[in-house]
């Protein structure tokens, strides 16, 4: 049984959803994957709807919304220890998770992907009993939250204001890392488009640690596109490491954020979760 | 197998570990893929694949790798399964064990070198060099 959770959160998602809702339901029926549909409201939250789906013994939960809705649904599934496959139809054409998992922004293509039911067991990162699919950013310098702008120029001013910071990590209890960095990310999966190194394979049971060393002003201007798109490994001097468990030792109170939201502060442990999530992915996935 | 001379000659970078110039590592740096060191490492470095030590890198550790290209400063025991190349900026202080060795003019090496002899397969010390 398919259980659909519709959550057009932002205004532009709502407008888009109103436009395509009828067509979406027709496509689901044509591809024989129709099911129960529920829209998220202030009372009927994503978490409650997922619990409802578990109670109804749904085989598949399809999230129709943005990346944050998908993350919330997955967190609830993992906490409830539910063995349910998750699918995703993105209402945001710029969805990072959609690009990583090969889910097309075109609804006809994304419905065909769901109907194809290509299921992958994906690793999740865990931080303070919160699970994440994408990455954790350390410190105040969150590159994923800076929009590139035209020719990347508007982002340059923001990058110039960022300050380097010291960082101390312990990886797999085997070795300690210390450095002064401009940015630090712990990646479970990421959009590798335009990046030289393929990082963030969510099936390899590892987290990728990416550190960006301090940059001069000229380098910030020169590599603004790489900084804005998150391909920090394209910038000379970047550090890449891999581990199952990363202990962020310091500095104390260093914020750890996911998609712009601070979840905890150092000292903290980020690790690969014991449980995987089963997810319907597309042929154009990046792993 | 030709000795590696360039960064592009080995590895596909898919699971490569890269230690940047500003990074300091203490402990056992163990990887299943290639390792590239441009910073400072103390402890141990181990990989079954390729190790590249950049010209500004400093390693005070024992090294165990499949192949290695050394352009930086190393103090420690070095065990290489196959090819070892010490480039002109390389400085090695410690004992080496490898199957094939190449030392570029200008490199500095202080220690003993043990290499497997092809006929008998026995390990014999070759020469102490500086």
Please tell me how large the radius of gyration of chain A is. 19 Å
- Described by the principal axes of the CA atoms, the overall outline of chain A is globular
The strands making up the biggest β-sheet of chain B line up spatially as: 1-3-5-7-10-13
Distance, first to last CA of chain B: 27 Å
Name the beta content range of chain B: over 45%
Q: With helices defined by DSSP (H or I, 4 residues minimum), what is the helix count of chain B?
A: 0
Report the order of strands and helices of chain A. EHEHEHEHHEEEEHEEEHHEEEEEE
Strand content of chain A: 25-35%
Radius of gyration of chain B: 14 Å
Short description:
Chain A is an alpha+beta fold and about 290 residues long. Chain A contains eight helices and 17 strands.
Model description:
Chain A: Residues 1-130 form the DAGKc domain. Chain A: It holds the Pfam family DAGK_cat. Chain A: It comes from Candidatus Doudnabacteria bacterium RIFCSPLOWO2_02_FULL_48_13. Chain A: InterPro entries: ATP-NAD_kinase_N, Diacylglycerol_kinase_cat_dom, NAD/diacylglycerol_kinase_sf. Chain A: This is DAGKc domain-containing protein. The complex is a heterodimer of chains A (287) and B (130). Chain A folds into two domains: 2-117, Probable inorganic polyphosphate/atp-NAD kinase, domain 1 (Rossmann fold, 3-Layer(aba) Sandwich); 130-272, Tumour Suppressor Smad4. Chain A has eight helices and 17 strands. The longest helix of chain A has 20 residues, at 11-30. In chain A, a hairpin with a 2-residue loop joins strand 14 and strand 15. In chain A, helix 1 packs across helix 5 (107-116) and helix 2 packs across helix 3 (67-79). Chain A is 28% helix and 32% strand. Chain A has 287 residues and is of the alpha+beta class. In chain A, the strands form three sheets. In chain A, strands 6, 7, 8, 9, 10, 11, 12, 13, 14, 15 and 16 form an eleven-stranded antiparallel beta sheet that branches. Chain A is globular and about 55 Å long. With 130 residues, chain B is mainly β. Chain B has one domain (14-129). Chain B has strands at residues 17-19, 24-31, 35-37, 40-47, 50-53, 58-65, 67-70, 73-75, 78-80, 83-86, 91-93, 96-98, 100-103, 108-116, 123-129. The model of chain B is unreliable at 1-14 (pLDDT under 50). Classes of the chains: A alpha+beta (287), B mainly beta (130).
């Amino acid at each position: 049984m398919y259980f659909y959770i519709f959550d057009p959160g932002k205004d532009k998602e709502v407008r888009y959803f109103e436009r395509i809702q009828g067509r979406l339901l027709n496509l689901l029926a044509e591809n024989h994957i129709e099911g129960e549909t529920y829209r998220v409201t202030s009372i009927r939250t994503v978490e409650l709807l997922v619990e409802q789906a578990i109670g109804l013994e749904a085989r598949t939960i399809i999230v129709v919304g943005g990346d944050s809705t998908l993350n919330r649904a997955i967190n609830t599934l993992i906490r409830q220890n539910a063995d349910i496959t998750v699918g995703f139809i993105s209402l945001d054409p710029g969805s990072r998770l959609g690009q990583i998992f090969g889910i097309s922004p075109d609804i006809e293509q994304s419905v065909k992907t769901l109907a194809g039911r290509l299921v992958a067991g994906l690793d999740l990162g865990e931080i303070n009993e919160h699970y994440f699919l994408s990455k954790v950013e350390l410190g105040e310098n969150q590159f994923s939250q800076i929009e590139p702008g035209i020719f990347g120029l508007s982002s340059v001013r923001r990058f110039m204001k960022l300050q380097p910071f010291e960082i101390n990590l312990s990886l797999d209890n085997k070795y300690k890392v210390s450095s002064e960095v401009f940015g630090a990310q712990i990646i479970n999966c990421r959009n590798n488009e335009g990046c030289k190194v393929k990082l963030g394979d969510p099936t390899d049971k590892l987290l990728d640690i990416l550190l960006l060393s301090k940059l001069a002003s000229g380098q910030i201007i020169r590599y603004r596109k790489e900084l804005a798109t998150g391909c920090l490994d394209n910038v000379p001097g970047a550090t890449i490491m891999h581990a199952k468990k990363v202990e962020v030792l310091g500095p104390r109170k260093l914020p750890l954020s996911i998609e712009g939201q601070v979840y905890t502060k150092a000292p903290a442990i980020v690790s690969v979760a014991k449980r995987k999530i089963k997810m319907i992915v597309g042929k154009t996935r990046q792993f | 197998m030709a000795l590696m001379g360039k960064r592009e000659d080995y590895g596909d970078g898919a699971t490569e570990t890269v230690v940047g110039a500003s990074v300091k590592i203490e402990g056992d740096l163990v990887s299943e893929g290639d390792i590239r060191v441009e910073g400072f490492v103390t402890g141990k470095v181990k990989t079954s694949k390729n190790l590249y030590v950049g010209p500004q890198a400093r390693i005070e550790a024992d090294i165990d790798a499949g192949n290695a290209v050394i352009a930086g400063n190393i103090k420690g025991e070095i065990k290489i399964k196959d090819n070892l190349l010490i480039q002109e900026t390389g400085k090695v202080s410690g004992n080496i064990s490898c199957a094939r060795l190449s030392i570029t003019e200008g490199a500095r090496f202080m220690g003993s070198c043990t290499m497997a002899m092809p006929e008998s397969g026995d390990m014999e010390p070759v020469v102490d060099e500086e």
